[in-house]
Amino acid sequence: MPSMLTSTYGLDMVPLEQDSESGYASGSSSDSSLPDLYFTKSHLTFLNRQLQNLEPQEILRWCITSLPSLYQTTAFGPSGLATLDMLSKLKIPRPQTVDLIFLDTLHHFKETLDLVDRVREKYPLVNVHVYKPDRIENAKEFARVHGESLWETNDQLYDWVAKVEPAQRAYKDLRVHAVLTGRRRSQGGKRGDLDVIEVDEAGLIKVNPLANWSFQQVQEYVKSNDVPYNDLLERGYKSIGDWHSTQPIKEGDDERAGRWKGQQKTECGIHNPRSKFAQFLKAQELKKQEEALQESIRSESEITT
Question: ∠199-254-267 over CA atoms, to 5°?
Fold first, then answer.
């Protein structure tokens, strides 16, 4: 996935196809003459240091003018909706619509799905790309294929099937190079030391424009700008995911305390390293092969006896 940019000064370089007048390669040059886009470690550190002190709108302006194939991934939480509203109000010379990617796990609250319709009505110029588990359309089909309550019997497989695989399919189908997320440091857990810009193992650039904001700041923005929000926020919920793994929280609890309550888990999978799921899938395949072998041995034994 092209998402990297490096300097070749001081290195042996292969000559690029150059403009006959300027001597430089440009956006009109052939693809083969231009390097892929990626960030060196020092460049990434520099950008995070610079963007750290900017307001979310300024970070979004930088994203619009600097990152090609930019999308926003969202479950329509308040941070994502604040980002969407900010984008709709940016004043830039060449406006660019940032499409949304929504992972419909088939287990969202009804209130979340109702909110999607209200968002489409409020922001009609924004496309919402909906991705579901592969070749499954509803919760009944999901249970038939994967069994009842997969999130209880094998939560890693559930994360892969319902979230990670659909996300990777979306990135491939839409040729995504960079995504905006609604993650913030104040959400705690692994997000406590979040950078504004990250790059995952596959080279996908992730930008967290509201990284510095608190839940209160997001809430104030949403209310003062008449941004649609999930009705569940009025009933004690703060972080909202699937109905089976989300609960309302008490006053003073961490913002994401209602997610996966009682489990040693703070992320749903799409923000975990991809290698983790590659290892998990390999283990799953080996387990299947072992089970098939044992079944074959049992069958052979029954025939001989």
Answer: 35
Active site residues: 268
What is the DSSP annotation of 126-168? S-EEEE-STT--SHHHHHHHH-TTHHHH-HHHHHIIIIIHHHH
- pTM of this structure: 0.78
3-class SS string, 287-299 = HHHHHHHHHHHHH
The pLDDT profile of the chain, 305 residues, written as one tens digit per residue, is 444 443 333 334 334 444 545 455 555 655 555 555 678 889 999 999 999 999 999 999 999 999 999 999 999 999 999 999 999 999 887 667 899 999 999 999 999 999 999 999 999 999 999 999 999 999 999 999 999 999 999 989 999 999 999 999 999 999 999 999 999 988 766 666 789 999 988 889 999 999 999 999 999 999 999 999 999 999 988 889 999 999 888 777 777 665 766 666 555 666 566 555 556 555 666 666 666 666 666 666 666 66
How many angstroms separate the Cα of 242 from the Cα of each of 135, 210, 227? 20, 23, 22
3-state secondary structure 15-55: CCCCCCCCCCCCCCCCHHHCCCCECCHHHHHHHHHHHCCCC
